[in-house]
Specification:
53 strands, 940 residues, 9-stranded parallel beta sheet, transmembrane helix, alpha+beta, glycosidase, Immunoglobulin-like, 19% helix, Glyco_hydro_31_AS
Length: 940
């Protein structure tokens, strides 16, 4: 009559006398009898699990309304037997509320019993049988660049409007990049209008094989030639389903070590124990298990031998991604096509380089953008803004950029400022510029419609240029945001770039800002859909909506999916709305400023890093938010958006001196460093605290500014070859005992040189972390540690963050100052050299004027490499294309790991001043202000 579960071994065994086992409780169906023990067990679980309360109530209601013997019914088809829980692929993904009748009406298996109670609500009760009828391959042909196949199905799925004939195109784009897509060959469907970049090298000897099943259900398998590891394999998973508004495909993962798939809050390593991730941009404060601001259907999978590959699904429709412990991953999307790219690595760095080679390398930020930024919502006046600026100057805080939130606007109207409360804003900005500082303000996409006709140019010109999103019937779609009723620019319209440029240019004539902060661009809407609701067609209310989506519907807190944009319906383009604003904003800034600037956006999509950066949204002033910021920063490195940071000290709620000090220490290592909070919270700018806390924060800021030349070099590398700025530990150490590095998500690295271990809890002075197998030095004390690769207690004193330097590293530093402008006016470069056990080290320096557009592309930069061998440091000037007015003088060289005192130190054959510290085995060498633009040889 069925199967039972052996609780101890978690395997399926043969039944005994028509008795089912749920744990150790017997459920007997014979004679229409049923034991109360499992019922009471289930009820107890329900009471303890509020998240599944509704599901259980509805299910039990339906269950108990029938004769008792029906409660024991399961699917008895042979093709349902012996399917382990880990390999059940959900046949009813649109709801938790499913019954046996509904399940089997889809031709699927019904098994409402689980090996462990904690799996309730995770393991599907309704799942696909092994012989579920799907697509088969009708023909398969080789092409000059790959292969093509025609697929068909003879029976319809349970989803409306199946596409019965499909085409598969496989294209070998390079040795490291494979492209395949599945689409309707007879009817045009929406495809993502994203600019992609061709492979840089032709196909020679690719390290992949692609095979298509010629018999039985359709499947595609991508294998790494060199190891035989399967990287993408649909065989043995859920069937391919391709209906008009529901597309599903699954793949077996090479290992449970999978990362990416954002934007979401959680650990960096995605839990393969039935994790459901929703991708649909929404204005919602960061929390676990819901969709957030960004849309990134890309994942990195580390294989058993430490090699890695990446998979990108180019699709912008609402999407659910489910990861299960097979391990396997299932995509379910509401439209478009299946357009996949597989990146072969083999290192994790290589994967990200290859991914950004497709979607575009990150922009090169101006040097000032890497300094400290300060903001809050609720200064309420230009005088108060100036007061905050002045007190942080008086406190001698390194500080480059002041920001204003929406309270600077006149009635929250874009491209205006409040002449009553911010009457002296122009003078404030000019004062910032006079001190070598910069100014950035917020702009939202919602354009007010409530102003007198002819009085508000952003609206009047938008109507004239026809650039606003329309509703289904062709009228303007109206939502509600901060200024009241608003309309929304359509970033796909050919007139919108020029329209946005004019607004930005006109406002800069009033307030000479230096960058743009674009918010509320999911787009956010204070009413669902529009002020009059939505038409309610199959775009607004599709047959499939991912379970767990904020608000339970696509219209929640945003525009109607049925709204019309120039290129397609908002249903298709919603995820790209913020991306479109980033493109228009950066384009406008380049035209206006004629130099580098920044755009910081809340909503992002693949390719956003080409045009700007991101902050992780409206977090809270809690230790958990500090901790989760680390995985958030690392995720956006995978997504090709390296200029990223969290609101330091927390956006909402009151911070504490300890929390803020610790967060400033961590934030000093965010690629984008900004302290920002809301209008109801206490002040949290550095100078708002007591003198002891100020000292700690000042030291953290001075440390960041000391390291800015190294950070700038890392951004150069990201811009040129796509390497992440912040690197997860396993990027440098992919293989470790018990896969330890693959689980680290509190620690991270800057490039290959620095290991950062922050304090993440209150009163913490020692924190557990992993020290990979290598030679390490404490940045502050220079103490050396030869690690065999182990978890250790890291010292985290209140005064500073734990910062380790990898042996074998050379990186540039500079004497800090209160602004990057002052640092550059009197640049005093240093080299920090940490020797490996064999006495070698290497590193590089990149330098330009910090502002010029396309400095690298035009050759207006300097690039110097350094190496140490046999007690000699040598530099090579790789490129000398920027003549710095201040020069590039070498002020000091610090060499760690020198076991004995040198008899002398010589720079370019001349004796140099130096000091040797036996305790730390460090040489401190006076660089003599020698120019880094000439070859240098230093021996000791």
């Amino acid at each position: 009559m069925g199967l039972k579960t052996n609780e101890e071994k978690d395997v399926l065994v043969e039944p005994e006398d028509d008795v089912f086992y749920y744990g150790k409780c017997v459920w007997s169906c014979r004679g229409q009898r049923i034991s109360l023990i499992p019922i009471l067990t289930i009820i107890a679980i329900v009471i303890l699990s509020v998240s599944f309360f509704l599901y259980t109530v509805v299910f039990l209601d339906e269950l108990l309304s029938k004769p008792f013997n029906s409660a024991c019914e399961i699917s008895t088809q042979p093709q349902c037997d012996n399917i382990p829980e880990s390999q059940r692929f959900d046949c009813f993904p649109e709801t938790y509320l499913v019954t046996k009748e509904k399940c089997e009406a889809r031709g699927c298996c019904w098994w409402p019993f689980l090996s462990r109670p904690e799996m309730l609500g995770k393991v599907p009760w309704c799942f696909y049988s092994r012989d579920y009828q799907g697509y088969i391959v009708d023909s398969l042909n080789q092409t000059a660049t790959g292969m093509t196949a025609m697929l068909s199905r003879s029976t319809k799925s349970s989803w409306p409007n199946d596409i019965m004939t499909l085409q598969l195109d496989v294209n070998f784009e390079s040795n490291e990049r494979l492209h395949f897509k599945i689409y309707d060959p007879h009817n045009s469907r929406y495809e993502v209008p994203l600019k992609l970049f061709p492979a840089s090298e032709p196909v020679g000897a690719p390290d992949y094989d692609v095979s298509i099943a010629k018999q039985g259900p359709f499947s595609i398998t991508v294998t790494r030639k060199s190891t035989g590891q399967k990287l993408f394999e649909t065989a043995g998973t859920s069937p391919l389903i391709f209906a008009d508004q529901f597309i599903q495909i699954s793949t077996v993962l090479s290992s449970p070590f999978v990362y990416g798939l954002g934007e979401h809050r959680g650990s960096f390593l995605i839990d393969t124990n039935w994790t459901k991730l929703v991708l649909w941009n929404v204005d919602h404060p960061p929390e676990r298990n819901v969709n957030l601001y960004g849309f990134h259907p890309f994942y990195l999978n580390v294989e058993g031998d430490g090699k890695a590959h990446g998979v990108f699904l180019l699709n912008s429709n609402a999407m659910a991604v489910e990861v299960q412990p097979f391990p396997a991953l299932t995509y379910r999307t509401t439209g478009g096509i299946l357009d996949f790219y597989v990146f072969m690595g083999p290192s994790s760095d290589n994967v990200i380089q290859q991914y950004t080679g497709l979607i575009g390398r990150s922009f090169m930020p101006p040097f000032w953008a890497l300094g400290f930024h300060l903001c809050r919502w609720g200064y309420q006046s230009s005088e108060r803004t100036k007061e905050i600026i002045d007190r942080n100057r008086a406190a001698n805080m390194p500080y480059d950029t002041q920001w204003n939130d929406i309270d600077y606007m006149d009635r929250h109207l874009d491209w205006t400022y409040d002449h009553d409360h911010y009457s002296s804003l122009m003078e404030v900005v000019q004062d910032l510029h006079n001190h070598g500082q910069h100014y950035v303000m917020i702009v939202d996409p919602g354009i007010s419609i409530e102003q007198t006709p002819g009085s508000y140019q952003p609206y009047d010109e938008g109507i004239r240029d026809n650039v606003f999103v329309k509703d289904y019937n062709g009228s303007l779609i109206v939502g509600v945001v901060w200024p009241g009723k608003t309309v929304f620019p359509d970033w796909t319209h050919p007139n919108v770039s020029d329209y946005w440029f004019r607004q930005a240019s006109r406002f800069r004539q009033q307030i000479p800002y230096d960058g743009l902060w674009i918010d509320m661009n999911e787009p956010s809407n204070f009413v669902d859909g529009s002020t009059i609701g939505c038409i309610g067609n199959d775009l607004d209310d599709p047959p499939f909506v991912p379970v767990g989506i904020v608000g339970g519907k696509l219209t929640a807190k945003t525009l109607c999916p049925s709204a019309k944009q120039y290129l397609s319906y908002h249903y298709n383009l919603h995820a790209m709305y913020g991306y479109g604003e980033m493109v228009a904003s950066m384009s406008a800034l380049k035209k206006i400023l004629q130099k580098r600037s920044i755009v910081i956006s809340r909503s992002t999509f693949p390719g956003s890093g080409v045009h700007g950066g991101h902050w992780t949204g409206d977090n809270k002033a809690t230790w958990d938010d500090l901790m989760y910021s680390v995985s958030g920063i690392m995720n956006f490195q995978l997504f090709g958006i390296p200029l990223v940071g969290a609101d330091i000290c927390g956006f909402s709620g009151d911070t504490t001196p300890e929390l803020c000090a610790r967060w400033m220490q961590l934030g000093a290592f965010y690629p984008f460093m900004r302290n920002h909070n809301d209008l109801t919270a206490k002040d949290q700018d550095p100078a708002a605290f007591d003198s002891k806390t100020q000292d700690i924060i000042r030291e953290a800021l001075n440390l960041r500014y000391t390291l800015l030349p190294f950070l700038y070099y890392l951004f150069f590398r990201s811009h040129v070859d796509g390497s992440p700025v912040v690197r997860p530990v396993f990027f440098q150490y992919p293989v470790s005992d018990y896969n330890a590095t693959l689980t680290v998500d509190i620690q991270f690295m800057w490039g290959s040189c620095l290991l950062i271990t922050p304090a993440i809890s209150q009163d913490e002075t020692v924190g557990l972390g992993y020290l990979p197998k290598d030679t390490w030095y404490d940045f502050f004390t220079h103490e050396q540690n030869q690690s065999s690769g182990q978890w250790i207690n890291f010292d985290t004193p209140a005064e500073r963050i734990n910062l380790k330097v990898r042996g074998g590293s050379i990186f540039p530093v500079m004497e800090p100052n209160v602004t990057t402008t002052l640092m550059r006016k009197n640049p005093l470069f240093g080299l920090f050299v940490a020797l490996a056990t064999d006495g070698t080290a290497s590193g590089e320096l990149y330098w330009d004027d910090g502002d010029q557009l396309d400095a690298y592309e035009s050759g207006m930069y300097n690039h110097v490499s350094f190496s140490v061998q046999k007690n000699t440091l040598q530099s090579i000037v790789v490129k000398s294309g920027y003549i710095s007015p201040e020069g590039m003088p070498l002020n000091r060289v610090t060499v760690l790991g020198v076991s004995s005192a040198p008899q002398s130190v010589v720079i370019n054959k001349k004796k140099a001043n130096y000091r040797y510290d036996l305790g730390s085995q460090t040489i401190y060498i006076d660089g003599g202000k020698m120019s880094l633009l000439s070859p240098i040889t230093i021996g000791w």
